[in-house]
Amino acid sequence: MSEDFESAAAQAVARLTAHWAALESLALPVEPAHAPGATARALPASAPERGEPLERILADTWSVVVPGLVHWQHPAFLGYYPTANSPASVLAELVTAGLGVQGMMWSTSPAATELEQVVVDWLAKALGLPGSFLHSGGTGGGVIQDSASSAVLVAIVAALHRASGGGWRTDGVDGRYRAYCTGQANSCVPKAVRIAGLGEPVEIATTAGTGAMDPHALAARLDADRRAGLVPTVVVATSGTTATCAFDPLPAVADVCRRHGVWLHVDGAYAGSAALCPEHRAVNDGLEAADSYAVNAHKWMRTGTPCDVLWTSDRASLTEAMAIRPAFLHNPATESGAVVDFRDWQIPLGRPMRALKLWYVLRAHGLEGLRAAVRHDVGLAGRLARTIDREPGFHLVAHELGLVAFRYGTDGQTRALAARLAADTGLVCTPAEVEGRPLLRAVFGSPYATEATVDQVWAAIRRHAQAC
Amino acid sequence: MSEDFESAAAQAVARLTAHWAALESLALPVEPAHAPGATARALPASAPERGEPLERILADTWSVVVPGLVHWQHPAFLGYYPTANSPASVLAELVTAGLGVQGMMWSTSPAATELEQVVVDWLAKALGLPGSFLHSGGTGGGVIQDSASSAVLVAIVAALHRASGGGWRTDGVDGRYRAYCTGQANSCVPKAVRIAGLGEPVEIATTAGTGAMDPHALAARLDADRRAGLVPTVVVATSGTTATCAFDPLPAVADVCRRHGVWLHVDGAYAGSAALCPEHRAVNDGLEAADSYAVNAHKWMRTGTPCDVLWTSDRASLTEAMAIRPAFLHNPATESGAVVDFRDWQIPLGRPMRALKLWYVLRAHGLEGLRAAVRHDVGLAGRLARTIDREPGFHLVAHELGLVAFRYGTDGQTRALAARLAADTGLVCTPAEVEGRPLLRAVFGSPYATEATVDQVWAAIRRHAQAC
Question: What is the distance, to the nearest Å, from the Cα of residue A441 to the centroid of all Cα atoms in its chain?
Fold first, then answer.
């Protein structure tokens, strides 16, 4: 099958580079006009009995699948958070898949584990993170997860372990443990709190008009819960909220957490990457007192999804919470205590070689290249923000890093505009809500976006607004 | 960067095909003689400032990383479960990475979701699973997860939702909910039970000498727990345990679960693939009464890791348990109710296009090809089992499908043999334990293994045994 593979892989590479060129030249729409079931109906009802040539499957990919995709690296994709990508990342995925190893323990592929330790340390240094998060620094370390969702769940579990003195491992949770965040935390936070068995998180108020956690409200609630016999366990703060890229005031929040002995997890999924640039290093303020921190390299660092990096300064709590050591995982390296086994840093037992992709991206782009990408996107967001700010009827709600949030006219008009934009296949722009009021947000991240893109997107938004 | 990519990708393909040929011809050892820190020391302490050519990074991959890997598709890799792979799977990973879409909702790439619905239905039909697990069948459906670990956690969460009448979502668990499995369940089961906040699972006894759950013991314990005011929530049964590929008696276990209204999750991570072959369809017996079932395509279906398929016959409980709908995820397709949003079927919010890989593998190999692979491995295991059974001093503990479990002499001698095999870089063979006694196990799965491999591996095992 190798010969068939070599020829099919060459075709795939050619198709992909043509695809990227089409994105760059706007030859493809950002999203399809797609009726539910259209792709499913184009496929047979059962798998074939006989094998088929790879080239035929590849051709069907472009005729059946690609027309039904939303192109997350398209210049006019300003929704959610654009998913990063680059040729270096794609090459690494090819090599990772081809080598096909499983790195659940050091012993099951020593180089996979050590490369990951080195590369997450590289990234921590590049972002200027506290030394307590480094593998080479003492009691901490980083690990690659699939998502900020999994990262926050792992952090919550570590916090439960620490808050319960380990008793949680055997007894489970019992209705006393509490998790805290604002209503502006990403939906993955309440979801993880729920999965960990804690029900709904306690919602901490934001300071009016900021979208950011009020540390006084946090302190008051922790005091009250403590007095009520509850166990405040974990506070999840956000550096860069989804709706408006608001920053919970980490130094003050961390201070409250420290006083109460509560685990502080910081979700920097999007904005954390900005710290690559010295001028944006303020996003790290207060992290030295955090117990864990997560950044999605797949959001703003040219690394394809999935690639979230979770760091902790309390490796022991995290790994003791997650560790499980059946006979079939016994091996001399683990027992020596001289190695890291990443199975104990994540929910799944098995894991692919996760670090190769980040290693390729950091080397191929260099820190200079990644900083330039951040600055480029910040520049485009600034252009859109200034335009919106000048336009009668529009209201600029927030402009932070590569994110712009805005309203048009009344709340009803903003909602009408959101509906019109959702129906327009020429751009993707996501709605959100702050303090009960709707807004629209645009986030820049496409490697192909230019000032001309901003102007085209703005023209479309303005045109739709006039009909609202 | 595209030109650099095309040339580097061509080199990567050539390197990978050479690598696979080296595995097939036994030109590489299965694992490295690797001292802790060897790879880390070969890497710089920081990421480079300037970008580097992809070809240099590729060359370093082979000089620095590959020598420190354990080769999971090597013919002499008989440990854990071999991680499946194939050129079709690798090609699909390349295309998936290159297209770089994110399929958290139908609307964020309709074709990604629909392809997944179709392909997991294909696989369900190919395995002869109950129609209740099909998307096209009514109240059920399948979804691709990263691992059997995540699959069982999702199932536990769905079970908690159903057992609590939904109250668990807001109130959390409270010490009354119980999960049940035997001591032979994979370690991912107690880990998932712990993460869900239930503490340790209740261990149900196995029928002596079988490694399989005693359904009478299960019934007695559920009765007792119910009388004690507890809430039996989920039973995790295993089709093919890790140590000896034992099968919990599903029809009897399902009967008990149904009587008690308890969610039954079945972990068929390894053995489930055998149902591709009509002669092994008995592994499915009893599944028609299961609420959820998981099979790892990355164990025995030529699909690279990660690729676990989780099916449920109770889609509503699963998605209601996991759903979360902040403003930024609102979209007309979701609100219409006409589409599936896989974010509500898994722990993370985001997800790559997971189905392309399984689609490529099913088509490239065809069901005939996948059945032939299962039969080949079963044949090799039979050859090793017969040899062990004939050899004085060795005791064949179990021989099921592609797995062989054995002891040598006393328990002390078996442990000594395990230690010698762990130190031998010429093969990988994993220890395990049943009823407190050690054993060794070998699982066949390498596409390159032949009868000659079996004989070479056996000669090595025999030689090491003579020194114990």
Answer: 17
